[in-house]
Write a structure and sequence with these properties.
By secondary structure, the protein is of the alpha/beta class. It is built from eight helices and eight strands, in the order E-H-E-H-E-H-E-H-E-H-E-H-E-H-E-H. An eight-stranded parallel β-sheet has the order 7-6-5-4-3-2-1-8. Helix 1 runs parallel beside helix 2 and helix 3 runs parallel beside helix 4. It is globular.
């Protein structure tokens, strides 16, 4: 009797150091991204290059131009295509990214099939995963059929729940529906306490986890009360855009002050 393939653990990693630690701890594949607080955005080319140089396991690269929703403007699509092109051309010490992770929805919550086809075509021959935008789509079964039709290799999903462990019936249904056409990758709330239960779902042979912790900075010189960012409250139904009135007001004031000097 042929042995079942060993399950693959994919770890979401926000840096090259993080990715190396994940590999050393047992990760069989990493998903490299930036801005975990926003669900992950595209990492820098430098971060991808150093990760490829240091790791021996496959590296998937997030292609997402910003946080927030998954409805993209023409400029954002151009950014995604350029980032994908960079990944298809990148090679470090004979190693290339294994694949990219991306996703797009229409304003009505359907998988944006037209854009997705364009992105997948641009990414080949790399592997392509549709990320958890899938969980915010209108109807998971129909969305899965669309991904299969487009030719995605994998879909990352929490089965439409905050934690995939709460949606095992849905996960089972999706896995059966995908069959051999697409890998269903459970992610979201996966832990040592529930990984075994999730792997018991027929057809599930891969898991995706986030595994971060906070450590104190090694900085001795510290300045209090001067934050470099702001408190973040994630909202997939809001996105940050430019405030041209504020820009114009500051520019006008600068011109006024400059004119007096």
């Amino acid at each position: 009797m042929r042995a079942s393939p060993k399950p693959i653990l994919e770890v979401c990693c926000p840096s090259a150091d993080f990715a190396l630690a994940a590999q050393m701890a047992g990760a069989g594949r990493v998903e490299l991204c930036d801005n975990l607080a926003e669900g992950g955005t595209t990492p820098s080319l430098g971060a991808v290059g150093v990760t490829l140089q240091r790791l021996s396991v496959p590296v998937m690269v997030m292609i997402r131009p910003r946080g927030g929703d998954f409805l993209y403007t023409p400029s954002e699509v151009d950014v995604m295509l350029r980032d994908i092109e960079a990944m298809t051309r990148l090679e470090v010490d004979g190693k290339r990214p294994h694949g990219v992770v991306l996703g797009a929805l229409t304003r009505d919550g359907e998988v944006d099939a037209s854009l997705s086809r364009e992105l997948v075509a641009a990414a080949r021959p790399l592997s392509v995963t549709f990320h958890r935008a899938f969980d915010l789509s209108r109807e998971l079964d129909r969305s899965l059929d669309t991904l299969v039709d487009i030719g995605f290799d994998r879909v990352l999903t929490s089965a439409g729940c905050a934690s995939v462990a709460d949606g095992l019936e849905t996960l089972s249904r999706l896995t059966r529906r995908a069959g051999e056409n697409l890998i269903v990758l459970p992610g979201g709330g996966v832990s040592a306490k529930n990984a075994g239960r999730i792997l018991e779902v027929a057809g599930v042979r891969e898991l995706h986890i986030g595994a971060s912790r906070w450590v104190a900075s090694e900085m001795r010189h510290r300045v209090e009360g001067v934050p470099m960012g702001r408190a973040y409250d994630p909202d997939e139904y809001a996105r940050e855009v430019a405030d041209p009135d504020r820009v114009a007001a500051v520019a006008k004031d600068m011109m006024r002050v400059g004119g007096r000097s």
